[in-house]
Amino acid sequence: MSSNEEATPLSKSDHILFDMPVSNNGARIRAILYYKQLSQQQVEIISPMKLGGLRSEEFKAMSPQGLMPALTIQKEHASGMTHLSESDTIARYLLAEYAGTGPSFQSDNPRSNQINRWHDIYLTTIQGCLYKPASRFPLGNYADRKSAISAFQKNLKVIEGFMSDEGMYLCGDEVSLADASLFPTCVFANYMLPKFDDSQPPLPPKLTAWFDNLRTNDSVFSKVYKEIMDELVTSWDEKNHRWDKIWLAGQRDEAPGTIFDKIVAKEIPATIVKEDKHILAFKDISPQAPAHVLVIPKDRNGLTNLRRASAEHTDILGKMLVAAAEIANDAELGFGDGARFVINDGNDGGQEVYHIHLHVLGGKKLGSMV
Length: 370
Fold this sequence. Notes:
Elements lengths: L2 H5 L7 E4 L5 H13 L6 E4 L10 H4 L9 E4 L9 E3 L1 H11 L12 H13 L22 H18 L14 H20 L8 H13 L1 H21 L19 H6 L7 E4 L3 E5 L7 E7 L16 H15 L11 E3 L15 E5 L8
Helix pairs in contact: 2-4, 2-7, 2-9, 5-6, 5-7, 7-9, 8-9
């Protein structure tokens, strides 16, 4: 950026909201702006691309995490703040700044605040499971996409339990900050969750009724819905084919089941030596050493062999190795001073069962493998 460009302000408005239509967190702010009918002089919406994008030094000076939305305060403010990041902070600032204009959004309503907080802590922190590549995992406390999606759906049901039973909105007859926060995320969920599992509705029943009512009968939320959906469909889906390479959406485990699935289901007996909710370890029925145990993930999750592994499998592969180490230290299983850990992969690697498994061999001094 040249010195002349630096001297030219992007806008002479009181505030600049750096946001893009596809941002569900930014849409919370846009809903407030639209409801309060704030002028462009009061708040102008500008794309972060005008600063060079989310990773540019200029944008990160406002939003250190490089996330939308961000707000520049261009008029003198008593707080001395010149910019804000995080959508809830920006929303509450604007609600206070323009409290006398339009609806209040019930920023002090405990029901609204409960929904809003639950949304921000337990949904937005893991919403990337619906659209981010494996390289962006883990998300929050969830190491893989399947567990993150399950948690996302569970927390939608929790939020449903916080809803009022009366009125059009989450807290009754008046729009709240909870509506502005949750609705855009439900646009994401309603569009994206069926890409992973179309056998059930994407939203719980009460949330479905609320969501359908707002996108159909509330002009502001109809506008927000269209803004987000236009970008999701035309840019993310049709142009960039975002979900084609996303595990459990465009890519799934379509390999046939194996004997290991039957062992996990206890349909076939096995001498189990270790088990938790993630892994199962049992003695090999054709041992190649005095002590020979197989360690498998209970959920294959696409790991027919090791070459299928991605960043989404980091956690389960680590759990397999830790389990193998504990087994190799168990003298009661016949292990002594050390063990051999082997994963056969594919035809050339001598793999027989296409459900990844780790051999733990020991009980005697083993010869050189190569």
